[in-house]
Design a protein that fits this description.
The protein is mainly alpha-helical and about 325 residues long. It has a single domain, classed as Up-down Bundle (Formate dehydrogenase/DMSO reductase fold). Helices cover about 75% and strands about 5% of the residues. It is built from 13 helices and six strands. The chain has a two-stranded antiparallel sheet. The protein has a two-stranded antiparallel ribbon with strand order 3-4. Strands 5-6 form a two-stranded antiparallel ribbon. The longest helix is centred in the middle third of the chain and has 32 residues. It is globular and about 60 Å long. The termini are far apart. It holds the Pfam family Cyt_bd_oxida_II. It is found in: Cell membrane. This is Cytochrome bd ubiquinol oxidase subunit II. Belongs to the cytochrome ubiquinol oxidase subunit 2 family.
Length: about 325
């Protein structure tokens, strides 16, 4: 297997990991913004309790993705940085705002156990940024696959605003719904009794939105991104996407049966297969139709260095993240 394919596969694993972990963080902000009903205050408190211990730690995977892309495929990194300058910076701004707003809200003064006006304002910023950021990230994912972002003779060219096409908007909304679904499913495990029922209801609503937006995206893919459509139904990607579809059905069934651990596991498989199927369908292109893995890859020596350095880095990163979750996410001991 060519080295550039191995490095690209590692980068795709980073994208999947980021979606599974940080996607749920975004989704938590979405449900914080959309909290309703007589227990909306308790819902927000439960989300803050779930997100707070690992606040922003999952964005380490975004840095991982950027490092792999920058070092392994510098030509593609340069083209994406130019062609998608605006959405990338909007997404970065959203990440910064939601992270800062979450902390400022946590330390805002309260009056008689009720949130103050400043706390409410920071909460609105936290929720709004959590909505906008995954939408933009989903839109950029569409932009690299539809063939409207071109790199001709080393010059980045585009046909209009490539990340604001109907397909890009549909993909952005689908990313939003998937984040909301993941978060709600995760929260069914973090909560009990009435709050658990609340988040189960939200998971079912978000899952319905995922189904609807997926069906909406299919004709848009067929008519505006023929290359990606053909890749998705190819013998390479179709089995992976079929597993993802079965996992989605299993996750929905598990929610209906109140089997939340199974629903979470199936949801993780669903998201993983969806992104893996996209990566397989996109192959061998990074930016269709002008930049491939082979044409954008760094020199062989650099790729070898990446493959040697990444395991060493992961030997530090993975135990550190495990320890973080172990310390801050474990349930308290009964005798503590």
């Amino acid at each position: 297997m060519p080295l550039e394919v191995v490095v690209a596969a590692i980068g795709l694993l980073g994208v999947i990991t980021y979606a599974i972990l940080a996607g749920a963080d975004f989704g938590g902000g979405i449900w914080d913004l959309l909290a309703w009903g007589p227990r909306r205050t308790q819902q927000r408190e439960a989300i803050a309790h779930a997100v707070g211990p690992v606040w922003e730690a999952n964005h380490v995977w975004l840095i991982f993705i950027i490092v792999v892309l920058f070092t392994g495929f510098p030509t593609a990194f340069a083209a994406l940085s130019i062609g998608l300058f605006a959405p990338f910076h909007l997404a970065l701004l959203g990440i910064i705002l939601r992270g800062a707003a979450f902390v400022f809200r946590a330390y805002s003064p309260q009056k008689e156990q009720q949130p103050s006006q400043s706390s409410q304002r920071w909460g609105t910023i936290f929720g709004a940024a959590s909505v906008i950021t995954p939408v933009i990230l989903g839109m950029t994912l569409s932009a690299v696959s539809a063939g409207q972002l071109r790199v001709i003779d080393g010059v980045v060219q585009s046909e209009g605003i490539v990340w604001m096409t109907p397909l890009a908007i549909a993909m952005g909304l689908l990313a939003l719904a998937l984040c909301a679904y993941l978060a709600a499913v995760y929260m069914t495990i973090e909560t009990r009794d009435e709050l658990q029922a609340d988040f189960r209801q939200r998971a079912l609503l978000a899952g319905t939105a995922v189904v609807g937006l997926s069906l909406l995206s299919l004709p848009l893919l067929y008519f505006t991104a023929q290359h990606l459509w053909e890749g998705l139904i190819s013998v390479r990607a179709a089995p992976v996407l079929t597993i993802g579809l079965l996992a989605a059905l299993l996750s929905g069934w598990a929610l209906l049966r109140w089997r939340f651990q199974l629903a979470r596991g199936a949801a993780i498989v669903q998201i993983s297969c969806l992104l893996a199927g996209w990566g397989i369908a996109q192959y061998p292109y990074i930016i269709y139709p002008d930049i491939t893995l082979a044409t954008a890859s760094a020199p062989r020596a650099t790729l070898i260095f990446i493959l040697v350095a990444l395991p060493l880095g992961l030997l530090i990163l993975l135990p550190s993240l495990w320890f973080l979750f172990k310390v801050f996410k474990s349930a308290p001991r009964e005798d503590a």
